[in-house]
Amino acid sequence: MNLAFNTSLAEGYSSNSQIARLLTENWVLNNSYCPCCGEIPLNEFENNRPVADFYCKKCSEEFELKSKSGKLSKTITDGAYSTMIERINSDNNPNFFFLTYTKQWTVNDFLIIPKQFFTTEIIVKRPPLSETARRAGWVGCNIDISKVADAGKVFLIKNAQTINQEFVKETFNKTLFLRTKSKDAKGWILDVMNCVDLIKKETFTLDEIYKFEQKLKIKYPNNNFIKDKIRQQLQLLRDKGIIEFVGRGNYKKVNYGNI
């Protein structure tokens, strides 16, 4: 991938936001590929489409692009809160590309969060705009990507280093099974994935995961078999190649190139 933007496209523009939008979208069109199937290039939807920016002709995955200058932060500014919640709960919510770039207009980070990792819990409601604002009362939102499991943060470029395309495709496709799960079943899987991520070492034990029992009990107060549910999710994650079982109650994390 060429990490430099085509800055000649910005000639005649004075708005920084317009320039950033133009350059980042052009870069994605000319450099990215579909993380699901590897198809090159992606295609652009017509302007002002409310749901997504790009799509793949081969596998029909859809993508929305969010970009910002500087380093990748825990939260990403998004649009209207109500619209975002509605999209998450719909059948046609897109995957999200997040792109950060330097002052020299070069890519620093470029990652995708697959749509199955978007839940209402990662959407943070912002205070309404003041009565004196042009859009008084409007309520926006932020996307808190720190609450997304590591397996759901798939880097195509990290710290200006391109990640192997086959590795990206493998990582993206490993979690597609989540799209077939009910809301409740997916919630349990994602919660246990996040518990695994909170253990800051490569290997962990069943007893270490059990330490999150009370945290999960607060979220699922009517479930009296929390440990059973934890083991059930660990077995599923093992079967899907997201963690490895190494014996005697010990597990190993699979590296996603995103730590």
Description:
The chain has 259 residues and is an alpha+beta fold. Helices cover 29% and strands 23% of the residues. The protein contains seven helices and 13 strands. The chain has helices at 16-31, 81-88, 165-174, 183-198, 206-210, 213-219, 226-239; strands at residues 43-44, 54-55, 62-69, 75-80, 95-101, 107-113, 123-125, 140-144, 154-158, 161-162, 203-205, 243-247, 250-253. The strands form three sheets. Strands 1-2-3-5-6-9-10 form a seven-stranded mixed sheet. Strands 4-8-7 form a three-stranded antiparallel sheet. Strand 2 (54-55) and strand 3 form a beta hairpin. The longest helix is centred in the first third of the chain and has 16 residues, at 16-31. It is globular.
Which characteristics define this entry?
single chain; 259 residues; alpha+beta; seven-stranded mixed β-sheet; three-stranded antiparallel β-sheet; 13 strands; 29% helix; DpnI domain-containing protein; DRP_C
